[in-house]
Amino acid sequence: MKGKNSLLTALFVTALGMAQVQAAEPSVEPRIIGGSTVNHSTVPYQVALVSSGRQFCGGTLISPQWVLTAAHCVERSSAGSVQIRIGASDLRTSQGETHQVSRIYVHENWTGSLANGNDIALLRLSSNVSSAYTPAKLPTPQIKASLAAPGQSLKVSGWGRTSRNSNAGSPVLKATDLEVVTNSECTSLMNGISVSGAYICGYDRSSTSCNGDSGGPWVARSGSDYYVFGAVSWGLENCTSATAFTDVTDYVSWITQKSGITPDGGGTTPPPPPPPADECAGVGQWDPYKFYYVGDRAVVNGFLFESNYNQWGYNPYYDYWGIWSFIKTCN
Fold first, then answer.
1. Which sequence spans correspond to the domains of the chain?
2. pTM for the whole thing?
3. Which of the residues are catalytic?
């Protein structure tokens, strides 16, 4: 599941054969099949992750400067290549705001395997979003027991694909409600694939509606407050199973350590950032005979570039096709 390029093109539509489910790796399958079109004001914490002008994952605004998402969305991304959009009900319009990501924090124990959990990441923004948008609060175990116990319904939202017969995403924001189910029931619904305690599961018993964009929010509302309990992680490709969300409650201490944000909306002053590293250090000169993957970097004539595609032979200095992105001038 490595690589932003895969997210942008195939959206990880890996089928799991019935005879292989015990040993199979869970698949990332972003979609809102059976959901309803909603205005962004219904989910004012909803964020779209964008790279090269294309939306590739979802996220949850948890403070004016921080976004929660899934590790598999950004594990090979550089901060300079990712922006967030908030306030857009329709991605084809100029609605809302766009903010550059200044720092990406992927959980240190994320291995690239969904089966092992830790599918969580934080994005620090270079500027605060406006007060027109409402961050979702982090839950405590007590709040989880009150609002996200088995049998209760939470709202999932995003721009994922809307039909089992098409990989095309929806340009308009959609949402649906999923009921919390126990992990043992979730394992059964996942055709026997074990669902660890790192996840919390949702299921629609009345239809085959299923999840939203990878990394997107699963949220409960209480009065004027929103609490994020899950970040969309994985599900079976056929969209007839449950959806596994990273259990945010289990990662609150990690979120607080990285961002300074505490449960129930407290302490949003982040710790001071570490001194910036020299991004050019250790990056080799561009080699016309080397194959470059998405996210690989090269230096040409004192300038640092990052590859947007899996490719070789394209000189970044004379790039007229958007194969490379300029990052910075090296000292």
1. 4-265, 291-329
2. 0.72
3. 72, 119, 214
